[in-house]
Amino acid sequence: MPVKYWSSAGLLLTTWCNARCASCYLCSGPDRSDGMTVASALRVWRQLIEASPHGCRIHISGGEPFGDWPRLIDLCRRARADGLGPLGKIETNAFWAVDDEMVRQRVAALDEAGMGKLSISADPYHQQFVPMERPRLAARVAEQVLGPERVQVRWRDWLAEGYDTDALSEARREAAFVRWTSLGRDRLNGRAADMLAPKAQLKPIAAFADMSCRAALLRSRHVHVDPAGRVMPGTCAGIVLGVVGTASIAEIWRALEADWTDRPLISALASGGPVALLDQARAAGFVPRSGGYAATCHLCWDIRRHLVGRGLFDEALGPDWMYGANRGGGGSVP
To answer: Which member of 4, 189, 213, 319 lies 3.0 to 4.6 Å from 301 by CB, making a disulfide possible if both were Cys?
Structure first.
C-alpha cells in the first residue's frame, strides 16, 4: 500500500490570526477570515475517524483558534458529547492570555471537554506580535491545571531566554531571526520561504537532486484540513490531495491511493522531489533563484508559486491567496 492511512489530522479551524509571523507556512494573518463552522468541523472530524481502520487523532489549529473562543469550546464540547475523541491537542500563540483567571478558566474548560494537550507557540517570530509574558503566563497556569506533561511549548529554550522582538531595533530583531532560523526548526514554505529562507545558508539546486518527497506526500499518516475542506499533507501547505464536500475523506484517500501516479505534480514530487518539477516549471517560464535555496521545501514553494501564478495545476495547488495569486480561493467546507 503506497499511501498510508491518515491516523493523525489537524483541523485548521480558521485562517485568521492576530499575528503575521515570518515563520507561518500557512500564511495566516489578521486579513484572513475563512473559518469552519462547528457543524462542518464535526463532520470532517467524524469522516477522518471513519476513513482509517486505525482511527484518527485530531488536533485543532489555525490560524489562531482562540480568536473565536465560543466556537472553539463549543466544538470541543460537542465532539466529546458525540464520542469523537481523542482530541490530541489545541495550538495557540496565547495572545489571549491576559490574566491568570482567564487562562485557568479556559484551560479547565478545554480539559473537561477532552483536550489532551495545550500547545503554545513561542519563538522570536511570534514575539514580534504577542508580548512574551503571555505565552509564559499561559504555560505556567496551564501546567498547574493540566500538569507539565500536557503542556507543549514551541520552543521552551526560547521561552526561557526570550524577549519581545517587537521592542528591539530592526537590526537586533533581524539578528534574532537569523540566529533562530539557523537552527533549522522551521518549514521553509509559505511566508517562511520569503522571510526566513533567505536568512539560512543557500545551496545550489543540484544539492537537492533525487530528494524524493514520497514520505511527506504518500507515507505520512498526518494531514491538515483547511476551512474550505482542502486536504493537505501535514508538512506541505498549499498542495491539495482532495476537497471535502466534493468527496468524503475516505473517497479522497482511496482516489489518491488509486491514481497518485497519474497526477503530474504529485507523482513528480513523490518520485524526484521539486527538482523533478523543474522541466515543467521552466517550460512555463520559471527561472530559479541565482543564489540558490535553503532547502527542498524552499525550492518547491518557489516552483509551486510560479505554477499557480501561471494558472497551472489548479486542482493540486491552492488556495491561491496563500501563494499571493488571484485565481480564486477562500471559502468554507460545505
So the answer is: 189
